[in-house]
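Ticket #645: bound-state structure for magnesium ion.
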Amino acid sequence: MSASAAPAPPQTDERVAKVNPIRQFFSRPEAGAISGAIAIWLVFALYPVSQAGFLSARGTASYLEVAAELGILAVPVALLMIGGEFDLSIGSVIGICGMVTAMLATEIGWNIWPALAVALLVALAIGALNGFIVVRTGLPSFIVTLATLFMVRGLTIALTRLVTGRTQIGKLKEAAGYDSAAFIFAKEIPIGGITLPVSILWWIGLVIVGTWLLQRTQFGNWIYGVGGNPHAARNVGVPVDKVKIILFMCTAASAWLLSTIQATTYGGTDVLRGENREFYAIIAAVIGGNLLTGGFGSVVGAAFGALIYGMIQQGVVYAGIDADWVQFFLGAMLLVAVLVNRAIRARAMGGK
Amino acid sequence: MTDRTSGIPDSPIEVPPGRQGQTPLLDLRHVSKHFGRVIALSDVSINVYPGEVMCLLGDNGAGKSTLIKVLCGVHQPSDGAYLVEGTPVRFTSPREALDAGIGTVYQDLAMIPLMSVARNFFLGSEPTKGVVPFRRFDLEFADKVTREEMAKMGIILRDTNQPVGTLSGGERQCVAIARAVYFGAKVLILDEPTAALGVKEASVVLRYIAQARARGLGVVFITHNVDHAYPIGDRFTILNRGRSYGTFTKAEVSHAEVMKMMAGGEELETLAKELEKYENPNTIAAINAASGN
Ligand SMILES: Nc1ncnc2c1ncn2[C@@H]1O[C@H](COP(=O)(O)OP(=O)(O)O)[C@@H](O)[C@H]1O
Ligand SMILES: [Mg+2]
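RESOLUTION: The complex was predicted; output attached.
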C-alpha cells in the first residue's frame, strides 16, 4: 500500500485566481462598517448645513468622544459575540460600578483608588457569574444576562436609596485621590486649540489590544473556535467554559472602565447611568460585521460601528435635524449592516 | 483470566497472537455506556497494540462512535475499566486524552467552517512564540506546517487562510486526519474517515493508515465498509446494537465472514438472493423497460 508514493506535488496551483485587492477587502468582516463610516462622514461633510460644524476640530472631537464611550464597550462586546454569546447586563454594571465608587469615596470617605478597585471587583464578579451560569446551564446568554441586567439595576437603585436616600451622588471631585484618577480617566488633552478627552486614547488602545488578542494570540484562536462550534472546539482541547467566562468578565470590566471615565469626568454619578448602553454596544458590534451566531467578526469593525454611532449622533445636531431621528437612523443602519454583512460573509465562504 | 468481582480485570481481555506480555496502548475492559435509558454500549472489551490497525466494524447505530468517544475522553464509561499503557485512566475531557498522545478524527470532523485551514489545524494546540505578556500565536509556523502536512497527503492548499467551509468534503477529511496524525503521538482514532470519500481519496486515507502503523502507532479504524477495513486491518471487532461479537485476527475470519457478522447473517443472504435476480439478463431488460430507459 505504502509503496505507491504520491506524485510530487506541483509548486503552484492553477486553481488560484489572481487576488483582486478590492475584492479581498470586501470579504473582510469590517468592510461594511468602514465603507459605511466613510459614507456617513461624506454625508455630513457635504451637506451644507452640517458642513462647517461637522468638519470643525470641535465637531470632530465631539463625535470622537461619543464614539469612544461606546467603542470602549464595543471591543469586548465584539469579542464575546465572536465567542458566541451576548452580554446585556453591561448597562447595569456601568450603573453599579459608578455607585459603588461614589458611595465608598463620598459617603464613607475612602480614597478613590481603593473605591475603584472594589467597583472593579464587583464588575468582575458579575461578569464571572454571568459566564458561570451560561456555561453551567447551557441557557442562552441573552436570557441570563437580561435577568442580571434587571437584577443589578434594581439592586443599584434600591441600595443607593436605602443608604443615601437619593438616586444621585456628586462631590466625587472632593474625594481623596481624585486628581490622580482624573488624570488617568478624565484628562482633557489640548491639541491645536481644542481638547480631546483621554477616553479616545483608551478606546484606541483597547481596539489595538483587542485586535491583537483576536488575530495574533492563542486565546484569540480559541475565541473563534468557541463561537464557531463549541463542541468541535472542546473536542480538540479548547477550554471552552474558561474562554467564555473570561470574555464575560472582559465585558463587565469595560463597563467599569466606562463608568469610571464618566464618574471622574462629571464628578458624580446616578443610578440610571449606562441605561441602554448594552443595546448600542451590540449595534456597534453588529454594524462592525460581527456575526450574531459567533465565530466570525472583527474588533476594528466594532470600532467603526461605534464611530458611525458617534457621527450620526453629533452630525444630526450639526445638520439641525431633530435628535429624535438618531434612533431611526441607527436602526436603519443596523438593518442595512445585517444585510451587507450577510453578503460579505457569503463572499468569505467562497460565494460569488 | 478475568475477575469481574474485583472491578478491573487483571489482564487484557483479548491478547492477540504474539503479543503475550506486551502492554496495549489502549485497553477497554467490559465497558458499558448508558445515556439515560439508552444502552449505547454493553460489556465491550477492545484493545490496541503498537503497530497494529484495529478495525471497529458495525452498522449505523451499533455504538462505534460512542465507543471511540469513550476512548478519546468525550464520554466517561458508565461501567468497566479503561487503561492507557497499563494505567487505569478516567479522562474528563478530550484535552486529557490528547495530552496522553491519543489523536482523534471525529465523524463530524470537529472543524469550524468559518475559520481558516491553518487556524483549524492548530485549534487547541496553537504554537506560540514570545514572552508572556506578548506571547502570540505563531501563524507563520502554523501556515508552514499545515501546508507541509497537507502536501504529504497529496493536497496542495490554494491558501491556508481560506475558510475550512470552502474545502471539499475529501479535503476537509484530509485536514482532520493530517491534524490527528500530527498531534496524535501514540494512537490514532479515525471515525468513518472514508465514509464521504471517493475511491481515490479513500485510498489516500488508507495509505495514510498504513504509514501510521509502520511508524509504530496504534490505529483504531472505524468504518462500516468492509472493503476498506479488510485489506488494512490486523484485527476486527464487530459491534452490533451495542454489543461486541468479539475480536478476530485476519487469520481467523474471511472478508465474507466479517460481512456476514456485520449485517447479522440472514439479511445478507436475502440480499444475495435478490441480487441474483438482477444477474438474469431478462430481469435487467425488464427493469430497464419499466423505468423507461
Ligand atoms: N449523547 C447521546 N445521547 C443519547 N443517545 C445517544 C447519544 N450518543 C449516541 N446515542 C445512541 O447510541 C447509539 C449508538 O450510536 P453511535 O455510537 O453514534 O452509533 P454508530 O457510530 O455506530 O453509528 C444510537 O442508538 C444513538 O442514538
Ligand atoms: Mg458513528
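RESOLUTION NOTES: The radius of gyration of chain B is 21 Å.
TICKET STATUS: resolved
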